[in-house]
Amino acid sequence: MAQILENISKIVTLSPEEELLFLSKIETKHYKAKTVILSAGEVCKDSYFVNSGLLRSFTINDNIVEHVLSFACEGWWIGDMYSLLSQKPGNLFIEVLEDAEVVLLSKENQEELYHLIPKLERFFRIIVENSLVAYQERLMDNLSLSAEERFDKFCKKYPTLIQKVPQKQIASFIGVTPEFFSKMKSRLLRK
Amino acid sequence: MAQILENISKIVTLSPEEELLFLSKIETKHYKAKTVILSAGEVCKDSYFVNSGLLRSFTINDNIVEHVLSFACEGWWIGDMYSLLSQKPGNLFIEVLEDAEVVLLSKENQEELYHLIPKLERFFRIIVENSLVAYQERLMDNLSLSAEERFDKFCKKYPTLIQKVPQKQIASFIGVTPEFFSKMKSRLLRK
DNA sequence: TAGAGCACTTAATGTAGATTAAGAAAGAAG
DNA sequence: CTTCTTTCTTAATCTACATTAAGTGCTCTA
Q1: What sign does the dihedral A59-A40-A47-A99 (CA atoms) show?
Q2: pLDDT at site A189
Q3: Which of A2, B61, B65, B135 is the most buried (most CB within 10 A)?
């Protein structure tokens, strides 16, 4: 319930009144697995915080190939940053992989909160900074590591995801086809 | 001189006093081409804003292969975000490609300014948000586009860089070897 | 309990891009 | 101007990974 407050408190300290104010600006929703809560072509209106369950964001190329941009489980934020910032139609789908409880923070409320509680501007700055570092590293990994090394890093970084996520989506996340991933995996197991 | 203030004013409005305060916290330096202003293994102490000239950040793999993470010309920020945030030794080199005038903002001063001028927290939040969107797009491009398509996007996005930057570094930026880049380029010219 | 659909595997074949190696061209430095 | 170094090109060969295709085994639904 106050999961998101706990998450925020790891970075900035809100007063009880500020916490109440914050809670008044968010909305909690429950989604079944396989629900698509945002589609490519739509404008992203909200930031999503995952209380429980599992989501992913991805694009679809030429109506065929999916590419997973990110997973989000308990305690993570997800959204279509490009669309959210520009308020233009985005390229991302956001889909529920496991039944989820999600906190929605609308763009307007978020902007309003920046004024009402400047500490939240700090909070989101830091969240975004950390996210930027992670994407920079992932990009460099894609430029410099082999598929096997990227898989290895993935396993170490997200050990819990490996059981939960269909393996073809892990393949997509690290940037290989499901067929090659399968071959690579069995090759690794033989060692 | 007040180039950086102009840059800031595109996003937030500072009062004259705030501008003076800001100026008192920064330092301007001149570097010759080929200067390495940050090396892998060092802790990054500053954010760099480019007044003039051209810089790049890159890693080196196994003491051999370079991978360009970013270029920064007039009006751009550059740094080793990972190292700057964590204050741990980083993996990036930052090198001057063309004689440059660079504004240095130390981490301490930056943090201090967040408290003194909260609007600057907004400024940097927005800068980092935009940067995140760009890296997310670049990652997805690397997962889904061919080298030729990535080169095409690069040309459209950074037309001025093509003349300035040695072509092997463009190759590295888009994620191919210089040899393949050369072949690809002559193939494109023949059309 | 059948059968429709996914997720995963295996294997043959194809290819984008890497590697290696050499030479040409163009700067920089003395 | 000459030499040294670095960048760029070309070409042969190689390989990591993609593509295509077929088959296996889930699990969900009816």
Answers
A1: negative
A2: 82
A3: B135
Q: Which residues touch strand D (CB under 7 A)?
A: A 65, 146-148, 175-177, 179-180; B 166-168, 178-179, 181-183, 185-186
State how far the Cα of B179 lies from the Cα of B188, in Å rounded to an integer.
Answer: 14
Q: What is the pLDDT of residue A188?
A: 87
- What distance in Å separates the CA atoms of residue A79 and residue A45, rounded to the nearest whole number? 9
Residue A186, domain member (yes or no): no
Is a pLDDT exceeding 90 seen at residue A118?
yes
For residue A20, the one-letter residue type is: L
For residue A98, tell me if it sits in a domain: yes
Q: What total number of domains does chain B contain?
A: 1
Q: Report CB contact under 8 Å: A125, B130.
A: no
Question: Per-residue confidence at A1, pLDDT binned at 50, 70, 90?
Answer: low
Round the average pLDDT of chain A to a whole number and report it.
95
Neighbouring C-alpha atoms within 13 Å toward the C-beta of A164: 17
Cα A44 to chain centroid, rounded: 14
Give the CATH number for residue A61: 2.60.120.10
Cα–Cα distance measured from residue A92 to residue A42, given in angstroms and rounded to the nearest whole number: 9
| Integer Cα distance of B16 and B69 in angstroms | 36
How high is the pLDDT of residue B43? 98
pLDDT of residue A62: 77
Low-confidence residues in chain B, pLDDT < 50: none
Decide if A116 touches B, using CB distance below 8 A: no
Whole-number pLDDT of residue A190? 76
